[in-house]
Amino acid sequence: MQQVTQQRELPERISWARAMVFAIGFFLLAAILVGQIPGYVYNAMTASSLVEFERGSLSLGLICLACFAVVMVIELLFDPKPLLPPALLAGVGGIVTVVGLAVTILVSVTGYRDFPHADTKILPLLGGYFLWFQPDAIDLVAIGLIILFVGVATVFYSVLAMGELRNPDRRDLGTTPAIRWMIIISSLLLIVFLYCYNYDVAGALFQNIVLGIAVFLALGAFGLRLHYLMRPVRKRVMPGLYAIGALGLAQTGAVFVLLWIIAYPLLALIHPLPVLGPYLTNCLRATAVPNSCTFSQDAGYIVDAIVTSSFFGAMLAAVWAWKSNRNLVVVGSVVITAVIALTALVMHTAPTALPTAMMLCAGILIVATVWTITARREFAVVGENNLGCLGQWLVMGTCLFVYLASFAFFSMANFAAEETPPNIPNTIPGTPATAKDAFVMLALFAVLGAIQFFFLTRNRYRV
């Protein structure tokens, strides 16, 4: 009995390779949630025009609500048995998919990508063009992509539910050949795009098609791997997944949609106030309120602090809940990572920004899928080798190479000037300059990091 008790009290073991994948995933979450998103909100609020803030708020809010809808579809289909016939949901998802695809193609072909236009006059209020909204405040391409995503996800999980009705197997199948090939093909297509984009050896249409297939395959691999990850532990995971959707995604989406609705009326309300007006708003012309107004830097600091504190508190809560609710933390983390990937896509639908937005979306989805693969047996005893001097270098060197390669990868994004400038210089294709520092750096450190990670995995060092 004493021997059994001592064996149970032994610390849980995890390989350094698995620990590194977990660390990379949480570092990505922390960097984007605590750093990038609050910084984007601040820059959009304090820009010369609130159009970018309105577009971003609507896109971010709608993608959060869309992901909440997908979570509800998963709950209806797998908690623990279908509450609605999967064939019915598949039919509804098919209709939604057709609508989303039609909207996306229609607004792209006609060029009517934004609403309202400068010549639109529909119930104008407060100097607006549609109610109080300024030109280009609504991104129709993003709305079409969001509708398309909800439809495809509904059909995807409905087909999986119909398969489970025929086969009672509830095991975690791990990395099946379908998942493996989708990850491999998506990664190869991403490499093809990076070369074509940086050296301008193919047209924009070819690059967009390659990236579209890469995003679709990466999203399919992630969805299927998440399904297998949750399948053996649904009774413990489904309540937490619902909490993530209802208390996290739905509430966040509602807040950002509300910000999109009240931004201009709030400026008109705050500006005349004696103290708060000059402190929280900046207006170029006193005769054009709120048309010429934006929020001041002080208002941006306040909102930035609220957003940063909220996400930082969520990260601390995940650390606190890791020991007692590991399934909740793992599933919640990978779901939020996928939401971030989709957000990068729907918030940058301009023709110049869309290719690199799809690049980031595919890359983050691949990382999330690898994370779910690692999370299958994260605390299995995989080896008895001590780390040693060589192992310490492999751990430190791999982390360093991954860190530098990630900086280079994110520096290739071609977004609006209002956002954070790239860390590594990389010339936009088509311009006279030919600096390719970010691409060369990514290729070099990705190869070096992969080599070191291979030997780290092969030697099976334990933590």
TrEMBL record:
Keywords: Membrane, Transmembrane, Transmembrane helix. The keyword Transmembrane applies. The chain crosses the membrane at residues 20-38, 58-78, 87-109, 129-157, 178-197, 209-228, 240-263, 299-321, 328-347, 353-373, 393-417, 437-456. It comes from the Bacteria. The keyword Glycosyltransferase does not apply. This is Uncharacterized protein. It comes from Dictyobacter alpinus. The lineage of its organism: Bacteria, Bacillati, Chloroflexota, Ktedonobacteria, Ktedonobacterales.
